[in-house]
Amino acid sequence: MNKKITLLTLFLSLPLGLIYAQNVGIGTNSPTAKLHVEQLATSTTRNIFSDNAGLGRGLEMDQSNGSGNAAAIFIRQNGNGAFARGVDINLTANTTSYGQTIFNLGTGGGLYIDVNNNAATQAGIFMQHNGATARGMELNMNNVASTGIGAAFFQRGTERALYADAANTVSTSNTADFFQRGLGSGIGIGVTNAANPSAGFLLNYAGIGRGQEISLSNTANGDVGIAIFHSGDAGIGQYIGLGANANRSSNGLLISYDGNNTAGTGGGNAAEIQHNGNNGNAVDIFMGSPAVAAGPANTTSEYTALSISHLATGTSPTAGRMKAAINASNYSEDPTIFVQNLSATSGAAIEAYFTPVAAASALSTAIYGRADRTPTNGYGVAIWGDGGNYGIVGGTSTNAASSNFGILSLTNSGAFGIKSFIIDYPLDPTQKTLRHFSVESDEVLNMYRGVVTLDANGQATVQLPAYFDAINTNVTYQLTAIGSSQPPYVATEVANNQFGVAGAPNTKVSWTVHAQRNDPTIQYFEAQSGTHYRSAITDKKPNEQGKYLVPQAYGAAANQGIFYNADREKNAQEATQNYNEATAVPTATNTVIKPAAPTAAVVQPAK
Hints:
This protein is largely without helices or strands.
């Protein structure tokens, strides 16, 4: 009753100016403010209660001093109970107003929260919103000239700076949407600690949709869809790991490009890889693990390491275009394509098959090689074969052996060594072979032979092929009597594709004719190359002078050979070294560093 009288006396004395001149205390005899209210520690009643049934404000604080720097309201809460909040605002269920509105017309912050107790375990800001359609939090930066940040998170602890959990399993909305209508980036992630071993961006997705989707919808955009810049010495620019699944048909990387622009240089590339460094390959493809020795312990896959299919048909109608499945260019002296088969049995380095059924007039070619160089400036070798036993082996895939060639030369053919053929030895075909050798001459010759029977007058006419006169000149003869000691002789020389033989009547004569080739084909090649095949000895070309075809035969070093190639020898040595390294026991130096797989679940922070 005394407190009520005191409070009544207080308000009645307001017009008298008693309060304006001094501090007033309620529950204390030593007030330290204009109005100082204290409550006993054992009290459970409110300290100040305002019940406003009108249309005005329940409480208004006005800091009218423009130079003041103190807080309009300062609340210190020392309680530690479950409901000991600094400020508790409760709105009735039927209200549509905001729980709290802050209007700051100055240049300071709208809301500042400082939880400076290092042992704090509660959230700096905790919001629980049970509305059906309203946003949990909305932040509007309405000043179009603003250069400030919409939301900034500075986390100096060991936990996440930002965590979003869309826990409703039937929700189809995005967990977060970023719409950037300005000229800046949609999202910028900066992991500035140089010693940080964690991922700059970690996406752990357990659904059946896309793990990540990037859509550049502006057709005028000529920039990169995704750019990865890795400045590390041994890091990986991008790593894609698919979990083990024996029945899967997934792709580690799928690029689908639908561009069909034909203006300028045509459409873009589905994939382009640029390597500007001085070390490492532009692309490494491993079927299996490079850290494990080759063999069944590594992989039992029966698929190709690289499969390329070009589904267009016909030849390219546009000049300068080519429908090739592989187009390789190289400006160095090293091989344009280097293929090495490390099989210890019968694997091929390259196998090329022309499988479609060709038209009757088509010339289907499995491998075509062409090396155009002026002969005086070097050699153009279309195909070169070095084998442990056979440099080149050619065969035909049909039974018409009489009309097909395993190896066919459209121009000249030559050999440094012996020219021979090999067959199964008829008397022991499974254990031995029979070799025969070519008869060599310093002339380009054709040979014809046969046996003719002389008549009662000792005369006979030898009929030669109908084309003999058309392709031969400078004829020589050899005659041998059969069953007679009387030597035969040439009665008349070749004319009209025949010649006459005379000798003992009613005897046989074996004849052989050699003639120098003089057909239009050899005349053409002589005119084109300037080589006259009637001359057996020719001068070596200027770049061949001082060198040998087979230097070892004359005791000279291998590099004195006309066809010696230092780069090819180097590549052969490197191939041998690669084989030795590939078959050696793997060490830590040739392993690929794989990033750790993401955890199966994300730990939800305590609320």
